[in-house]
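W.,

You were right to be curious about this one. When I first looked at the sequence I had no strong expectations either way, so I just let the prediction run and decided to look at it fresh. Below is the sequence, 739 residues in total, followed by the output.
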Amino acid sequence: MDATTPVQTTRRGFLAAAGGLTFSAVLGVGLSESADAQTAGGGKLQPNAYVIVNTDDTVTIIAPVAEMGQGTLTALPLLVAEELDADWARVRTEFAPPNPRLYGNPHPLLNGGQASLASIAVPGYFTPLRTAGAQARLVLMQAAAEKWGVPVAEVSTDTGKVLHAKSGQRLTYGEIAGFAKMPAELPKVTPADLKKPEQYKLVGRRDIGRSDVRAKVTGQAKYGIDVIVPDMLYATVLESPMEGAKPLNVNTADAMAVPGITHVLPLPFGVAIVGKSVEATRMARYVLQPKVTWDTSAATAAKFDSVQAKSEYERHGKDGAAKSMDAYKRGDAVKAFGDGGKVIEATYWSEHVYHAQMEPMNCTVRVSEDGQSCEIWAGSQAPAGVVAVSSNILKTTPDKIRFHQQLIGGGFGRRIASDVVAQAVVIGNAVKPKAVKVLLTREDDMVAARPRPMTHHVMRATLDNQGRIAGWKHRIVAENVDAMAAPPRFQATGGKDYIGWQGSDLPHYAIANYASEGVRELRGMRVQPFRGIGSGHNKFAIESFLDEIAAERKVDPLEFRLALTRDDPRATEVLRTVARMSDWGRRRSGRALGLAFADYHGSLSAGVAEISLDRSSGKIKVHNYWVAADPGLAVQPQNVLAQLEGGVVWGLSVALLEQLDVKDGAIVQTNFHEYPVLRMSDMPEIHTSLIVSKAAPTGVGELGVAAVAPAIGNALFALTGKRVRQLPMSAPVVKKLVA
């Protein structure tokens, strides 16, 4: 292909490949079954898809989903090793290939899909992985019993060995792997056959660290950005500023004149610049950028201005005739409001926010000379989506795509979408058979942002004659995330937005009549899932509004929530625990406390923020943050606490600083000098408490996020008597509020 020839890929075709297919593939659509995973001989025994026993006594456990700092590369193999009775010191881990039929997560949110999202890896794989470990253990026991000529009921296992107590014989798992033959039918294992929590040797231990830490702290860990393959070119993409915009006036000659540049390719998603070095592509990008203009005639977002749109969002929030759709309901909220009690109302806002992942988006691809197969290296939260998108672009079959999962330097939902993978495959197809590494600059990463949507919340509550909440209404005005990120689910639900509306239900509060609803805005922004998803903005509105009601009633915010959770012992316990941790009733000179409660996919948390305020600048200083959590059984307690702390840091940054502005459909901010994130100097002391539980695990990766913003806002009210109703609570916003 000529170095400057526009690639013959239509925008419609590209979006069909890169967008709608991603979510379908995550749910297991379009991928063929792999070869039988059960093998014997050749120096190893593989009883099932998750376990490989090697003759050197090491055990390789296959991790079905990505590692992006949340600890799944340790926690999931630990579940297998527990039931396998393996020697953890001799366990090695590998990423599973993309194959939802073998490695899919049965959690209802994925229904067999293979992806890292929504804090459901441990909850979803909890039973399947333990079952796989128990099954492999039985295979080893049966093989040893046959060799010894004894009943299998007489043998047992202990830390990587099979024992026969009566004869004193023992065999290591590696020794058994050298002679074992796979049974014609694998042993049947039911949940009743699995260990009880009191029998665990590995699960729940505080002295087992994460298996990826050593490589990360020594610099040996390999991320997508580190990939180097032979005969490789580099590429960057001058990204389209919005969906539907096409590049015009691409002066390829100037860019091609930069030494080392091999291709300048006008594409449906921007302009790709390919060269022999990263430095060459960067130089050519800066030469090219000022001269490219964009045709936005087909871009819905071109008319969107995030400041001007606020009045329209507000109007849609108030308009009873605005088209809305039920998100969650209980009882009869309409009747409750018709009974004539006192009505309290408030509105809240949150701005667009950027994932700001440390590792900019990247992908390395080598397309075969015939264009019918390719090899891909990337860190992806949805490897099955990578395969489906790539095979669709190349018009080949999924078995022709080989994907190498890399460690992820920050996902937070951004790496669910396969847009950059799709770009890399298109570029790789244009420069084949050379490999190409697509690496976005931070500026282009931000231009290509898939942000959390801007949201407007209208909150209403009616109180009975005893001051209790008799009815509750919550209207969310925002772009629908599911419409962009999960089209099949969006269509199947008739236009509901599970991602954006998540967290607007009230499962733990004794409010008999409530309703949350969504009003969809059609603004053309490329909104996507974001750490905490809908809970990040919905809990801010809910927990802030609850404090407003408590203040109206002159009731302590803790006592008010304890009354609302009176029928929910788990919720009551996290609230009481965080109150004890923070010494809730003690007054602080020049400081104040704020409280919030949040649930996330069955896990519960409560947070208390201690703040002060510089009134001259409006800057809120968070001195301490306490968080108590009940996520069910903690597979790795220390990692659970670390995840809670990480969630708090994320929540603090989003609550106090982060905001994307949109002007004429394009993101205004260009890099971190215009998009500040939390600095070490602004970190509070974070205090965590984990409530011990034997209940099935319910996930922690996003649990620490949602209570942070409302806790800070409630503390500001306690300190100043002023209620902040928007995110972020930046210094200019707060200064204006308290002036």
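Here's what jumped out at me. The longest helix spans residues 121-148. And, maybe more interesting for your project: Confidence is low (pLDDT under 50) at residues 28-40.

Coffee later to discuss?

I.
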